[in-house]
């Protein structure tokens, strides 16, 4: 992903779906403070990028069909997150259940 992305400071939606060779998001993403939606469906990302924790307006995150196996603790503290798609991942059902209980107001999409 090109560093020039950081110049798109008004960007609200980022979709990099279907890029299996993409295994991380650049740190410059943190400069996109208006981002509300991020979708990394079908990418090679194995760990939820910590740069997402620096996006205060993030309300939708799709990790669908990625090789992610666990969710970071900071994800629970995202102030505006309302929709999380973890369908077709290997995240344990117990972890998803705990998240559902902790955030009954979230729309949590999963295969479990």
UniProtKB/TrEMBL annotation:
Superkingdom of this entry's organism? Bacteria
Signal sequence span is none
Q: Which UniProt keywords apply?
A: Leucine-rich repeat, Repeat
User: InterPro entries annotated for this entry?
Assistant: Leu-rich_rpt (IPR001611), LRR_dom_sf (IPR032675), LRR_domain-containing (IPR050216)
> Pfam family of this protein, just one?
LRR_1
Put simply, this protein is called Leucine-rich repeat domain-containing protein
* Organism of provenance: Myxococcus landrumensis
């Amino acid at each position: 992903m090109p560093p020039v992305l950081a110049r798109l400071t008004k960007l609200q939606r980022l979709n990099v779906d279907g890029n299996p060779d993409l295994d991380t998001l650049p740190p410059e993403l943190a400069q996109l403070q208006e981002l509300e939606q991020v979708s990394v469906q079908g990418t090679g990302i194995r760990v939820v990028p910590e740069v997402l924790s620096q996006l205060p307006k993030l309300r939708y995150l799709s990790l669908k069909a990625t090789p992610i196996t666990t969710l970071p603790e900071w994800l629970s503290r995202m102030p505006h997150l309302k929709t999380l798609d973890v369908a077709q991942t290997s995240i344990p059902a117990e972890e998803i259940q705990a998240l559902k209980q902790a955030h009954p107001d979230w729309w949590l999409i999963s295969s479990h």
